[in-house]
Amino acid sequence: MASTTQIKAQATGVDNEIRMILLGKTGAGKSSVGNTILGAKLFEAKLNPNGVTKQCGSATRDFEQKRLFVVDTPGFLDPTITEAAIQEEVALSR
Questions:
Q1: Angle at CA of residue 29, ends 91 and 84, nearest 5°
Q2: What is the CATH number of domain 17-92?
Q3: pLDDT tens per residue, range 68-81
Q4: Which of 5, 32, 42, 83 is deepest in the core (most CB within 10 A)?
Q5: Smallest Cα–Cα separation from 58: which of 6, 1, 15?
Q6: Distance of CA 91 to CAs 2, 35, 40, 49, 74, Å?
């Protein structure tokens, strides 16, 4: 399984593209939801109250003639990452 730091897809901006950014508290299951939406284990997901995702990661899937573009983000209120670092990561995700 690839970690989110290894997955980097680019949004194309085409009309049939749906973009999703997964936001939420640490441990809420953002990576697991991303894996479910994409239909594959592309984001590292574990039961861990300290958070697994440290950097934004993105991946895509074609579904019903649409391109799903999903961005997994670090959790808000993660005690191991500063709020400024989280905001910067989210701002840089494309």
A1: 30
A2: 3.40.50.300
A3: 999 998 887 777 77
A4: 42
A5: 6
A6: 23, 22, 25, 24, 12
E-assigned strand segments in the chain: 17-22, 57-63, 66-72
Q: Which tokens hold the place of 1?
A: 């399984």
- The radius of gyration of the chain from alpha carbons, rounded to an integer in Å, stands at 13
- Residues 9 and 60 sit within 8 Å (Cβ to Cβ): yes
List the beta bridge partners of residue 21: 71
The model scores a pTM over 0.85: no
DSSP 3-state of 33: helix
Which H or E element spans position 87? helix 83-92
All structural domains of the chain with their residue ranges: 17-92
How far apart CA 40 and CA 48 sit, in angstroms, is 20
